[in-house]
Design a protein that fits this description.
This protein is mainly alpha-helical and 137 residues long. It has 2 helices and no strands. The chain is elongated, with a radius of gyration of 55 Å.
């Protein structure tokens, strides 16, 4: 029986050694992973700082360019201010065409036009013929 117990103890020892080996490997991997993670975070922080600095410089350049453009625009607006002038020109020309003579209206039309121009009210005229009565059904 003693031999059998030794075999069982040996199995337990091998199992314990394997468990310790696995535990050591896990600790080594975790330590390496933690170190790598810290390095990654440190690298990310450095990259983020460079990115922020680059963006800050780009924003400052864009703001300066915008200010320059706005100043140029206002300068151009001042140069192109609109000034209104009234130009009056008198032309001596006599138009002699039959269209512009008083021959467009006959006597009744001329009388109606003169009355309309004077602003006087004229009485309603009577029709030449009476209005026909409606036809019976």
């Amino acid at each position: 029986m003693l031999r059998r117990e030794r075999g069982e103890v040996l199995v337990y020892l091998v199992a314990a050694a394997a468990a310790l080996g696995i535990l050591a490997a896990l600790v080594f991997w975790a330590d390496r992973n933690i170190a790598t993670s810290a390095g990654v975070k440190k690298g990310e922080a450095a990259v983020q700082k460079k990115w922020d600095d680059a963006n800050k410089e780009a924003r400052e350049r864009e703001a300066a360019a915008g200010a320059t453009a706005a100043t140029g625009l206002e300068t151009d607006r001042e140069k192109t201010k609109v000034a209104y002038r009234t130009v009056t020109k008198q032309v001596d020309k006599i138009v002699e065409r039959p269209v512009y003579r008083n021959l467009c209206f006959d006597a009744d039309g001329l009388r109606s036009a003169n009355v309309a121009l004077s602003g006087a009210l004229t009485p309603a005229t009577e029709p030449d013929r009476p209005v026909p009565k409606p036809l019976a059904p």
